[in-house]
Design brief:
Helices cover 52% and strands 11% of the residues. It has 178 residues and is α+β, with helices and mostly antiparallel strands.
Length: 178
């Protein structure tokens, strides 16, 4: 090859590296190594402990919450559609997160009720298994609600269940003699 051809070829490669730096071998390898290390470390989340506690959401986004024991109660199952209606009337959008620690029958009942209301619900991953919450109703922006416990927010719904008519027992002799 003649010296002019070598000169032209070397100028071509210099211009190629100047205008197309991603094609440089060492720079590309550094980016790939960095990407692999970042992916191996897992997703970068802001406040991961808070997200695990509040079933993959932030505490300031929570509209209503209940414990695992409360989520298993019949009173909450009966009043859950009312709570969802109230939440969706006051906040948009509304999401429901269901704990993986709940029994499957309860999970399915809550999923069915939220689907009937047109609200997106999901059963969170097992990373949140140690969360004290059974259900979280939340939005995608800060809600400003405190306290978030359903028993406190919707106490009138739960008081009606607790106020069963108490019948006074009468003695056998009183019923007999009247």
């Amino acid at each position: 090859m003649d010296p002019n051809g070598i000169l032209i070829l070397s100028i071509f490669f210099v211009l190629l590296l100047l205008f197309f730096p991603p094609l440089c071998y060492t720079k590309g390898m550094t980016d790939i190594n960095k990407t692999i290390l970042e992916k191996a470390a897992g997703p970068s989340r802001l406040h991961p402990d808070e997200q695990r506690r509040f079933l993959e959401t932030y505490s300031e986004r929570v509209i209503a919450s209940c414990s695992l024991a409360d989520a298993r109660e019949k009173a909450l199952l009966q009043n859950f559609p009312t709570i969802l209606t109230y939440s969706s009337d006051h906040f948009q959008p509304v999401f429901v997160k269901i704990s993986p620690s709940l029994d499957e029958s309860y999970q399915l009942q809550y999923l069915k009720m939220t689907k009937e209301q047109g609200i997106v619900a999901s059963i969170v991953s097992n990373d949140c298994k140690n969360s004290p919450f059974g259900l979280i109703i939340h939005t995608d922006h800060p809600s400003g609600i405190d306290p978030t416990d359903m028993r406190i927010q919707y106490s009138q719904l739960f008081e009606e269940e607790n106020q069963a008519p108490i019948s006074k027992k009468t003695s056998f002799w009183k019923r007999l003699f009247g």
